[in-house]
Structures are given as structure tokens and as C-alpha cells.
């Protein structure tokens, strides 16, 4: 028995699977917000808050569980179908898009924060902030970490640990009985999947399979089959997503300590970030897409709605990845060979929302400390914010962590991050949404730019069907826009 999905049935008047899932997700978002605010009035115990967030915790686990095999299978199966020239051109377009959108995002953020000037030195005094130890991180060391993580020494370990520069101060006693502090810089392994290392490994693996050809076909088939199975698992998980998203949002709202106070003190700062994200999402990126495709970018954006809502719920572009794949291929008819490469890479290194956010937040911290940044310092913020967004993991609040790089680079107090943590629950969700949609538009742009090269117009054979456990080939006719997928 097979079931067709992906086509709106105006004729039958029935809702398709995606429309039902989308409607449920929208209800979940509003339901989660309402539930959070209603239960908040009852002053729930910590245990109740924990229980409300439990289905969301399980949802995040489900998504995280899928990420690794999905990235592996999609990258390897996608790249093994292309020749070196095709994949080279596709990656060149993708990286050009990432570079362009990230730099414009940073510039938008800088322009807005300088113009609006949300940072008022008195706001800091009013804040009852945590006294945190100053942390210092070298931007150069972080850059080396980025490269180091691209080439993990152990691919199995890379699935759960990554390398990070470690700073340790040791006290050395001197001959004259005085002591001297010495800073030891070493590397250590920290918990967290090294997605970048995995991506580099899978890209090389996929391209080489394509080059070896017939003899490596078994490997190509294996990863194509794995990709199909993972896609099907995503469909199952998506049925649970409304419950998970509602739970995540309700629990987050219950967890915020002092809603009104933070809104009052950091309101203008939040509005600056939101204005920047809005400009980037609704103006800059659509303009770039339109320039490349001459198609309606808002229609394209509508197709990505389900992914945007999931990003709002999870605050993680990696966790949203499975959904983004699905909506791009199903709703927006982007060629799977493109999504399979551009999406995982984009979700890891292309974070426009995070870059914009880090630029605004750093200048804001300078402003509340009464520091006027010179042109050179603003340029440093722009550069390091770009680097920090590339280095940020696609997980909740990762942008706050990598902001240490930006703050240290311009000599701003890193402990002031504690000021903006209070509103990160909202800004993180919004910037993740921009990150996810930016990656989606990136796939759309590369699809347009590569259409001739990848022979999209003449139809290509792309396996996307499983029928009774067996693989079948789907002939995708891009000219007519028909893309039948049977799950
Ligand atoms: N949560 C963001 C993401 O997953 C990263 C960030 O914290 O900016 O895309």
C-alpha cells in the first residue's frame, strides 16, 4: 500500500499530510504560548515545569538522534551522484551565497545598533546581574579550533566529541620565593558532536565514491537506502512534533524569571535585534533569491513555513534539519542533490541570524559600558561576528557562547553576556528561524544557478521512493514541476 503526499488536493477538498502537520504545528505554537502563560499564573512547582517540558525533551532527543545518520546519508548519497565538476560548481555557488548573506546580515546589524543606540549605561546599573568571572578567548585560537575540528583524528569520536582550546593558569614559584602565573594553552576534547568534521569526512567520502564509480556502487546504494529510511523516520517524528513544540514553548515561558522587568530593561535592544532579523529575512534574502531566480521569494518562503515553526520551537537549526530537508524537496521542489549538500553544510556554517545577533549584542555591550567603538573596532566586531557565527554549533544558545570571541577581540567585558542571557530564550528562537530560512533560500538559489549544470530541466533519476521495503527510482520532471514521492 502506498500513499501519495505532497500535492494539495483541491479537487478532493481533503487536506494533505503536510497541510495537516503544518496546521497542527501552528496550533502547537499558539497552544504552547497560551499554556505557558496560563500555568504561569498558578505559580507551578519546579516538578510541574519539568513535566510540562518532558515531551519537548523527548522531541529534541528524537531530532538529535536523526541528525547524524541523516547528514551522513544525505551528503554521501547526494555527492556520489555528481561528478567533480558539478559538485565543485555547486559548492562554489553555495559558499558565495553563505559569504554574501552573512556579511550583509552583520552589516545590517551594525548599522541598526549604531543608529538606534539601544545601550544606555544606566541599564547596566539597574540590572541585578550575576557576578561572573571574566573569560577570555582568543579569536585566533577559535579559528584554529574550527580548522582542527574539520579534520578530526577519530571519526567515531567526532560523533560525540569535539576539540577545543583549553586555557589553564599555573602558579610557578620562583627562586626569590615569589610566584608567577603562567598560561598554558592546550587542546581538550569536549562533549558535543563535531558536525564540521563529519561534514568534511562525508563530502570527501561522497565525492570519491562518485569517482570510483562501478566498484563503489554498493556504497552509494547503501547510503541512498539509508537516506530513504531516515527520510521516512522524519515523517514519523513530524507527527509527534506538535506535541514536542508546544511542550518546549510552554516550558520555556514557565522558566523565564521576570518577564516584565527584562522586557522593560532590554526592550529596545530586543527590538533592534528583531528589526535586523526582520530586514534580513523579509528584504535582503528574498531580494537575493529574486535576483537569482526571478521567482516570487515569498511563495518560496511559504513552502518553508513548517521548518520555520520547528526552528521557533526547538531553537536549533540542526534539530530542524530533518524538517527543512522535507519541506524544501516536497513543497519547493528543490533538487535533492542540492539539498543533500547545501543544507547540512549551511546548517553548520551559514548562520545569518546568529551573525547579525552577535554584531548587535557586542556593540550593545560596548554601549552599556559607555565605550564608543572606533571604526577599526567596529570592523573587528563585523569580522569576528562572522567567524563566531561559522563556529557556533547549531544548537540552542550556541551564539551566546561564541560571542566570547567577539567580545574578547575588541576588549569588552565578557561577563556582560549575563545581561543578555535573560532574553536569549526569545532571540535565540528568532535567529534560529532566520538561520534555517537562510539555508533554505540558499538551496533555492543554488538550485536555480545549477539547473543547467545538473540537467534539472531534462529530468534526472533520483531515488526517493520506498515501496514495500524496496528501492525504486523516481523520475523527477523538473520542467513540469511534478515531483511524485511515495512514502
Ligand atoms: N540556536 C542557533 C541555531 O541553532 C544558534 C545560535 O545560538 O545562534 O541556529
From TrEMBL:
One cellular component term from this protein's GO annotations in UniProt: plasma membrane
Location(s) in or outside the cell: Membrane
Name recorded for this polypeptide: Amino acid transporter
Pfam families named in the record: SDF
Coiled-coil regions listed in the entry: none
Family: Belongs to the dicarboxylate/amino acid:cation symporter (DAACS) (TC 2.A.23) family.
Lineage top rank: taxon: Eukaryota
InterPro entries: DAACS, Na-dicarboxylate_symporter, Na-dicarboxylate_symporter_CS, Na:dicarbo_symporter_sf
GO molecular function terms attached to this record: glutamate:sodium symporter activity; L-glutamate transmembrane transporter activity; neutral L-amino acid transmembrane transporter activity
Membrane topology: Multi-pass membrane protein
UniProt entry keywords in alphabetical sequence: Glycoprotein, Membrane, Symport, Transmembrane, Transmembrane helix, Transport
Native source organism of the sequence: Steinernema carpocapsae
Stretches that traverse the bilayer: 21-39, 59-80, 92-116, 192-212, 233-254, 266-292, 304-325, 378-395, 401-427
Keyword hit for Zinc: no
Amino acid at each position: 500500500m502506498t500513499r501519495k503526499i505532497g500535492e494539495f488536493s483541491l479537487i478532493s477538498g481533503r487536506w494533505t499530510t503536510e497541510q495537516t502537520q503544518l496546521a497542527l504545528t501552528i496550533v502547537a505554537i499558539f497552544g504552547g504560548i497560551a499554556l505557558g502563560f496560563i500555568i504561569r499564573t498558578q505559580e507551578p512547582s519546579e516538578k510541574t515545569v519539568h513535566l510540562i517540558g518532558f515531551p519537548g525533551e523527548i522531541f529534541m532527543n528524537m531530532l538529535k538522534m536523526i541528525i547524524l545518520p541523516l547528514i551522513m546519508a544525505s551528503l554521501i548519497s547526494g555527492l556520489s551522484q555528481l561528478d567533480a565538476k558539478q559538485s565543485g560548481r555547486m559548492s562554489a555557488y553555495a559558499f558565495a551565497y553563505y559569504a554574501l548573506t552573512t556579511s550583509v546580515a552583520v552589516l545590517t546589524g551594525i548599522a541598526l545598533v549604531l543608529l538606534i543606540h539601544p545601550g544606555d549605561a544606566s541599564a547596566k546599573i539597574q540590572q541585578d546581574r550575576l557576578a561572573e568571572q571574566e573569560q577570555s578567548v582568543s579569536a585566533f585560537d577559535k579559528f584554529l579550533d574550527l580548522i582542527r575540528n574539520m579534520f578530526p583524528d577519530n571519526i567515531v569520536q567526532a560523533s560525540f566529541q569535539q576539540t577545543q582550546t583549553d586555557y589553564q593558569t599555573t602558579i610557578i614559584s620562583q627562586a626569590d620565593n615569589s610566584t608567577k602565573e603562567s598560561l598554558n594553552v592546550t587542546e581538550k576534547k569536549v562533549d558535543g558532536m563535531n558536525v564540521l568534521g563529519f561534514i568534511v569526512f562525508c563530502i570527501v567520502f561522497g565525492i570519491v565514491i562518485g569517482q570510483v564509480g562501478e566498484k563503489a556502487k554498493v556504497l552509494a546504494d547503501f547510503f541512498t537506502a539509508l537516506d530513504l529510511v531516515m527520510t521516512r523516520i522524519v515523517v514519523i517524528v513530524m507527527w509527534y512534533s506538535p506535541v514536542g513544540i508546544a511542550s518546549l514553548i510552554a516550558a520555556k515561558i514557565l522558566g523565564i524569571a521576570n518577564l516584565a522587568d527584562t522586557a522593560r530593561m532590554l526592550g529596545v535592544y530586543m527590538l533592534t535585534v528583531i528589526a535586523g532579523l526582520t530586514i534580513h529575512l523579509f528584504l535582503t534574502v528574498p531580494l537575493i533569491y529574486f535576483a537569482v531566480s526571478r521567482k516570487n521569494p515569498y511563495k518560496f518562503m511559504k513552502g518553508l513555513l513548517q521548518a520555520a515553526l520547528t526552528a521557533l520551537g526547538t531553537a536549533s537549526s540542526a534539530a530542524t534539519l530533518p524538517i527543512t530537508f522535507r519541506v524544501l524537496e516536497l513543497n519547493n521542489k528543490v533538487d535533492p542533490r542540492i539539498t543533500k549538500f547545501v543544507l547540512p553544510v549551511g546548517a553548520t556554517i551559514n548562520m545569518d541570524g546568529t551573525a547579525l545577533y552577535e554584531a548587535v549584542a557586542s556593540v550593545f555591550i560596548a554601549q552599556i559600558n559607555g565605550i564608543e567603538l572606533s571604526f577599526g573596532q567596529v570592523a573587528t566586531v563585523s569580522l569576528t561576528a562572522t567567524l563566531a557565527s561559522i563556529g557556533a554549533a547549531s544548537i540552542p544558545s550556541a551564539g551566546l557562547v561564541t560571542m566570547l570571541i567577539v567580545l574578547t577581540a575588541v576588549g569588552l567585558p565578557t561577563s556582560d553576556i549575563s545581561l543578555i542571557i535573560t532574553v536569549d530564550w526569545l532571540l535565540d528562537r528568532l535567529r534560529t528561524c532566520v538561520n534555517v530560512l537562510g539555508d533554505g533560500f540558499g538551496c533555492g538559489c543554488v538550485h536555480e544557478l545549477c539547473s543547467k549544470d545538473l540537467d534539472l530541466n531534462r529530468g534526472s533519476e533520483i531515488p526517493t521512493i520506498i515501496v514495500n521495503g524496496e528501492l525504486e527510482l523516481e523520475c523527477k520532471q523538473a520542467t513540469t514541476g511534478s515531483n511524485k514521492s511515495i512514502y
